[in-house]
Structure formats: C-alpha cells, structure tokens
Amino acid sequence: MRDVKAPLQAALRQALHSLGIEAPGPIPVDLAPKGKPGDYGSPIAFQLARKLKKSPVEIASALRDSLPEIPGVREVHAVGGFLNFTFDPAYLVTAASEPPSPNPKRGEKVLIEHTSVNPNKELHVGHLRNVALGDAMARILDFAGHPVEVINYIDDTGLQAAETLFALDHYRLEDSGGEKFDHFAGKAYVRLHKDLEDESVRSALGPKIREVVKRLEQGELREAVARILDAQLETMWALGASYDALVWESDIVREGLLQKALDALAKTPYVRRMDEGKYRGAIVFDTSEFIPGLEDPYLVLVRSDGTATYTAKDIAFQLWKMGVLEGLRFKPYTRQPSGKTLYTSAPDGEPMAFGGAKRTVNVIDVRQSYPQAVLKAALKALGRDDLAEGHVHLAYETVLLEGRPLSGRKGHVVSVDELLEEATRRAREVIAEKNPDHPDPELAARQVGLGAVRFAMVKTEPRRQIDFRWQAVLSFEGDAAPYLQYAHARAASILRKAKAEGLDWQQGADPTLATPHEVALAKAMLGFSEAVEKSASEHTPHLLANHLLDLAAVWNAYYNAKENGRPATPVLGAPPGLRELRLKLVESLKETLRIGLTLLGVPAPEVM
RNA sequence: GCGCCCGUAGCUCAGUAGGAUAGAGCGAGCGCCUCCUAAGCGCUAGGUCGCAGGUUCGAAUCCUGCCGGGCGCACCA
Fold it and tell me: Which end of chain A has fewer CB atoms within 10 angstroms, the N or the C?
C-alpha cells in the first residue's frame, strides 16, 4: 500500500528548504476535517509563525508557491493558515487498491517476554490480558519489520509452584484424567491455601513447602512442573499465542547466571552486604541513584539466609536477554499449532541464538513497576545506560471481573478455558439464528468466540483498568471483534460471488470512474500502515484496534450507501470499469482487515 | 504520608510528541431488508473534556495547585 502522506511531508520540507527554513521536526500532516477543502492538511505554518515573525496565512501562501509537483496532488489550498492538499481521486483509489505488506526486516532484534504464568494453576482472565497484549505486540512488531523473539518465562522455583506440587502430594491427589491437569492442580493449591489459614497448619507445613522450593531450585521436580505447564500451554495455544522459547527460572540458577549477575553487581558501589539494621546479613541493591523519591531505596537481592529473591533472578534473566550474560542452553520442547518449534532452556541442551537483544519488551502488569524499574537500575549500575534505554516495561492495568478485583480465594475468577468455551457457545447460537445455512458453523463459532475474547483485551489502552463483563464481551454487536469479522465476511462474500460469476477484476479497472464513496473508503484504508507503526512504536495494540473499528465503519457505510433511496455503491452490479475498480478496492479492503485482525490475534472468517 | 497511573456523553471508551466545528459503541427515540449477509446502515437526543489558575495565535492535550478513584511503597513478586 503506497504511502500518500510521506510525499506531502517531503514536499513541504523541500518547500521550507527553498525558503531558507529548516523544519524543526517531523512535519505534521493529517486528514482534513469534514467540510474543509482537500484530503490532507498540515498546520506547519502555525508552528513557524512565531519563529519567522510572520502570520500563518502569509507563510502558508508562500509555502504553497514554493511547493514542488507532488504525484497525485491536483490542488493545494492555503486555508486560514492551514495548507491543504486535494488528491486526484483516481490516485487515492489506486493507492488503496494495493493491500498492505509487511515491512522488510531491518534493525536489531526485539525480545518480547509475555505470558510467564506461574506453573501452578489454570489461566484466568487476568492472564488473558497479558497473553493477548504480548502476542499482539509480537505480531505487530514483526509486521512492522522488527526481528522478534518471544520468550515465555517459567517461574518454576517460586513459592506458588512449590505449594501446588506440595499440595498434590500432601493430599495424595491422583488425577483420574477426567480434568485438564492445570485445573486439577489449581484445586489442590486452593485447598492448601484454605488449610493454611489455620496458624498451626501453617507452622507445621511451612518447612515442608520450603523443602519443595529447594528441590525445585535443584531442578528435581521439573517433570511435575512440566505437566502443569503443558496443560497451560494448551490454553495459550487455544488463544492463538506462539513462542520461540521457554526459559526456566531454575536454569537461570543452575547455569550460573544468577551467580554471575550477583558477582557483577557486587563490584559496583551500589550493592553490598549489610552489617546492621533491618537488612543485616542480606545483600542489598541501593537504587536511590536510579529511582528517586523512595523512602527505602534498598532492594534485597540475597536474603540473610542465603537464598536469592525473585528480583535477583529476574535481573540475571534481563542481563541474559540483553546479552550481558551468556550461558543458557536450549533444546526443542515441542511443536506448536502455529507450526513453529518451541524450544526450552535445558542443562542438556545446546547453545542457541536466543537472547542478546538490544531492546526488550516485558509484558507484565503495572503492579510490578517497581521491580521492573529495578531491572533498568541494575543495567545502569553496570554502566549499561544504552541497554537500560532499550528496556521497555509494557505495564498494563489489572482486569476487574464485573466491577470487582479478581480473587481466587473468593471464587471470583473466570478461567480462560471456561471463557473460550462460553464465548464459542454464544457464537454458535448466534450463527444458528442469523445464518442457519452456514457451511461450517463450528469453525465460525470458534473464530468468533476467540476473536471476541481477544479483542476485548486489546481494544483499550493498556494503562487503563478494564472491567470484564460477560454481557459486554459476549455481545456480538457494536464496538467489538464480531463487527470487524462481519465486515471482513461481507467483503469476502462479494468476492466469492464475483468469482462464481466468472469475473476477472485484475484487468479493466478504470480509476477515473471513482466516486466520493470510493475516495472515502480509500482514505480510511490508507491509514492502516501508520496505525500499525504507531502501535509498534508506542507498544500498544489498541491504536491498531481502533483504526480497524474506524475502517470497518467506513466500509459498512460504503456498503450501505444510498442515493435517492437506491444503493449508491453496488459492486457486482456496477458498469464495467467501475465494477473492476470496486472489486479491486474491496479485495484490498478485505485483505487489510484480514491482516489487521491477524495482527491482533483475531481470526478473520470468510463466512459468518 | 511518599511515588506512579487514571478522571472526556447516563454507562464503556477513542482522541493527549498543542492544531481546523471533541468522536465511537451501549442504552433512549425515529427510520432502512422487492438492493452483493440487517452481527449492518442513516437520523435525533445527550458533553462547563474532575475543579481552579497559568503558558500559547491556539489547550481535552503542556505547567502548577486542589478534589475524586486505582496501584505500589516486605529479607513477596
């Protein structure tokens, strides 16, 4: 898809240059508002007014006179200081008739860590936001041209995993195979926590649980953890996620990365063992130079009993991600539904080209902003300000369920498996009602169910708390994935019919026949690449999600456009020349929607 | 208390590297299937952009203060 804004910016820059003015930064160009002349416009003259001590109107008019020829631009208007451009309709429609394509791969690899669910329980709606955001970001960054590597971190030495494994053993629970194992294990965990509310039980079981933590750190219980992880992976894959590698926390420890990280930090002036005070005997990191405003800037890396905190391991992991430390080995773990092989860190593996990225995106909820800031501080403490710059914490707010915080103990949770099943069931019902002759209702139901669930997680800005409400998520009307999918299916239907009629629209399109309806659609389509790039650079899929909603709305309006009570934009029934033009545009629109949906992990059904 | 984030239509949200009359969806009211899928489209009603100052030719967007709400301030993560 051709970029129509870049040539405008280039021309403006050139005009400025010929007037002896250097543009201060990027030159703003946007769609002209409704009711104003031109298709695109720039307020550049306003920005220069003060510096040049001239009125915007004067500057705009001088600029207009100095502009070079711009391909496709028919007229340039200076309107009250704005500089607007009217394109040849044929040019815009032709530009939009070419679907978007991925940017060629360029630059340094971006390592994105997401999911990283404790291997002790089934996934719930809170985890869902992480997977949906992380997977969408990976797809978007990839499309935008970045080499991307996706890591799922397995916190197998944490207390949570230990408690679940302990509970399974303690209650002598044998799974009969009737239940997905992560759900089964999760129940043991919940039961244990109920029992731990009793003080005497807690003091009796505490040492035994710590024993399990120790065994986990030795890597002894890896298979037991893997059994839970494998069940969780089923859910992650069902969501459409895919990973390059699993990195196990126990491997960070066993391969010596933790020790290397601690050794390196110990050589800096910021890390030392405390001789007195509340941290006596612990090794702490004084972050005050890097994180201002803290009452207590000391972060414990190694407890006085000699055990390392999670944050210490996370620092080691971050240093590995950025190539400061090396030493993890990998081997194939399994083949994913995406077709990609999933690798795992393993002591009996081989060195592989994972890690060593200059830029990392850590998808993790906002409550962990402080430990994430500590990772950045650790990089700076080691003198790697360059890498600290490349550390991005994609901090997303938590998910509420029907207005209240999630709570496993109060049973106020919804598992992802349950959610997908329910969404699919609802979709099945709607399809049976709306399209009883559907050729493959089960496929469409799964596509619509999954789409609704994933889209609900990415359409809102990450830093905003979202309230998961069954009624809204399962509503297949309005501002939601089914709206986009329906728009896509409508376009697909037209193309299917055209093919059935034996039409060939690759030739014979006459772009000079384009009406304002096609131009409006084309302009909406031409905003796609910018939306993707902005989503990539700002690390948020919601910009793309909102662009797609806008695009689908324009397309639906096009589809329904009427003049004098008659359909104004028939595609198949249009006269030759215009018909082919419309078919090409519809084909490109369909492809644009399909790509956009795919980048968000939302399936694009051919028939709904 | 200190720090970070959020206050935009009845509800849920876009819009914030300053730009042209603040936009959607849901909900309310009225219309549109002899026309390529009505999961759609059109129209109407609904907003002192939390409040008060400030900077600017121009502020929902930047600065300051205040008022609401969320989160974080453990030898947890």
Answer: N
Looking at CATH, the fold of the domain delimited by A110-269+307-405 is given as Rossmann fold (3.40.50)
Closest nucleotide to the alpha carbon of A583, via C1':
B36
Across A357-403, the runs of DSSP E, i.e. the strands, are 359-365, 391-396, 399-401
- Looking at 3.90.230.10, 1.10.730.10, 3.40.190.10, 3.30.1360.70, the CATH number of the domain A5-87 comes to 3.30.1360.70
pLDDT band at A484 (very low <50, low <70, confident <90, very high): very high
Q: How far is the CA of A5 from the C1' of B41 (A)?
A: 30
Length, in residues, of chain A? 608
Q: Provide the CA A16 to C1' B58 distance, Å, integer.
A: 22
Reported as a single tens digit per residue, the pLDDT across A153-164 is: 999 999 999 999
Domain ranges (residues) in chain A: 5-87, 110-269+307-405, 417-599
Give the model confidence (pLDDT) of A307-335 as tens digits: 999 999 999 999 999 999 999 999 999 99
State the nucleotide closest to A572 in CA–C1' terms: B36
Nucleotides of B under 7 A from a protein CB: 1-6, 12-17, 19-21, 24-27, 35-42, 56-58, 70-77
Q: What is the pLDDT of residues A485-538, one digit of tens each?
A: 999 999 999 999 999 999 999 999 999 999 999 999 999 999 999 999 999 999
Nearest-angstrom CA–CA distance, A123 and A232: 7
Burial of A521 (0-12, 13-18, 19+ CB in 10 A): buried
pLDDT tens, residue by residue, A59-98: 999 999 999 999 999 999 999 899 999 999 999 999 999 9
**Per-residue b or e along A235-264, where b marks 16 or more CB atoms closer than 10 Å to that residue's CB:** bbebbbbbbbbbbbbbbbbbbebbebbbeb
